[in-house]
Amino acid sequence: MTRDNHTLLSGEGRMVRGLRARESSVMAAIGEHSPITARVSRRQVIVLGVSSAVLVAGLVVIAPALAGLPDVWRRISHGDPWWLGIALVMEALSFVGHIVLFRAVSLDGSGRIGMRASTEITLAGHMATRLLASAGAGGIALTAWALKRSGMEARDVAARMTTFLVLLYGVYMGALVIGGIGLATGILHGGGSPAITLVPAAFGALVIAIVASAQLVKPGASRLRRGLAPVGAGVREARRLVRAGNPGLLGAIMWWGFDVATLWATFRAFGDSPAVGVLVIGYFVGMLANTLPLPGGIGGVDGGMIGAFAAFGVDPGLAIVAVLAYRFFAFWLPIAPGALAFASLRRTVAHWDADAQPVEPRVRAARMRRTVPEPALCSR
What we know:
- By secondary structure, the protein is mainly α.
- It has one domain.
- It has 17 helices and no strands.
- It has helices spanning 5-13, 15-29, 35-39, 42-67, 72-77, 81-106, 115-131, 137-149, 154-185, 194-213, 223-243, 250-270, 276-287, 300-311, 316-332, 335-356, 359-371.
- α2 packs across α8 (137-149) and α9 (154-185) crosses α13.
- The radius of gyration is 22 Å and the shape is globular.
């Protein structure tokens, strides 16, 4: 799905295939080896860096010159550090929300997926999303691998991941519906044409209807039933968690809400922020570009948000600077903590594997390590 209205409409017809694809990504990722060590190459990292540099150069240097926006550099040099500090805090709280939701959905009887493991998986998963496939497939693969190594059965992993996605993206689609209708009817200040208000609202409503109706589909042999049945199970489990009043579900609202607040703070750092309704719809419409086959949605999300805000009449120069600053906090800054979290996650998984071994084999292995010295030079 891209940002233009034609693709929004055509994307509705592909939603069932998209849901099946995410379920397939989860099942395919449930293996014994880390998806990052198996899939990240030097070429991917180089492509990520080069494409990002070209994007920034295009948005900051070329685009303003063509559009007659000489004040972009002036805005960058006069950013308010206090508001940028608030943006940093808002993004940190956004990740806290993601961690809280993940723990609420993934906590099982073993108790292994606590706050520490949830933090490691969340941060490492977001790093994988940046470095691997689009639409969050890299993060999904790493998360599924970690849950499997924690001792969960493959089907249980898929069910919990589906429930997590239903809860997380239910807030996304609900925001499209409420924000789009609110702007179109005048309840929310900001205006906007039907193409940027009602079309996203209709898209969000259709996705909610499709996912909600999936719980009525019973398992069967057809491709449609095989694709929708796990989604329906995820919806039913999500409803059960909501009815139980699990406070961890507030993490879904925190994830999106504080991320939007980060964008609001970067607007305030360089000028005035758009109206709340415009900010929300511009953010979520731009985020649809995350499904493009680009590393982490580089270029798509930035251009989508800037284009959406320009359609609402926001100063393009301000939109460019604010969105680029937001992407620094939301995209680039979490990569380094994600790398550290992945290293910590590997140690956590190693402890899980050690705890899962029978006692006698562990004792024999320890004795062998004490009696047989490791060669001075060894390659692994």
